[in-house]
Amino acid sequence: xxxxxxxxTCLLAPCVLAAAPAIAQAASDPQRDPARTEVWKPIPAMVAxxxxxAPSDAVVLFDGKDLSAxxxxxxxxxxxAVADGAFTVVQGSKGIRTKQRFCDIQLHVEWRxxxxxxxxxxxxxxxxxxxxxxxxxxxVLDSYDNPTYPNGQAASIYKQAIPLVNASRAPGQWQxxxxxxxxxxxxxxxxxxxxxxxxxxxxxVLVQNDTVVSGKTEYIGAPSYPPHGCxxxxxxxxxxxxxxxxxxxxxx
Length: 252
Fold this sequence. Notes:
mainly beta
């Protein structure tokens, strides 16, 4: 068979011409053996990823039925309303937090602000917040055609980090946050070893890219880092009927 015939054959079947020199080199020089750079252990655990459902290794924090994974911010029953596969802030009931404590996590949250916006603007329009470890706030707000200070709009690290873009949907539509959270580390004496970092996709769009968090969220004044351990995820009652659904978390 001529070389041209062999090349034509390669169009129809796997061709070993390119691999032949590598095989020959490996036979004469073990350092050139491609198997030397193949790592077979550890084998990653298999995680099932069903469509429209949490991954098989996730902790489901709300399955559409009840708030059994949550409690009131001062303990006791979580006082928000559950209906139609979602749960909604009951104004004046205060926030709720998970019974379980978390450090490094992947968190999925779907949320919706009220469709009716008449008479509300800025920070008054669909305001809530997702607090990682209870004290670091990722802002929830209707930021669709609703000007406010950029480090307080939806997907901001409140009063700290402006989102890269505004990926907000219109009020009354469901929105999605996918969050990667790396908790801060403290020394035995309470000093900060490394700050918290956060990555956020808002409706599938990257809005916080490995952002360094300056400290716990403050409404007035500069953030700081008092030492702490793993802590609950907290959802804020900010006097708006914001709804949530499909909340799950993976511990990293």
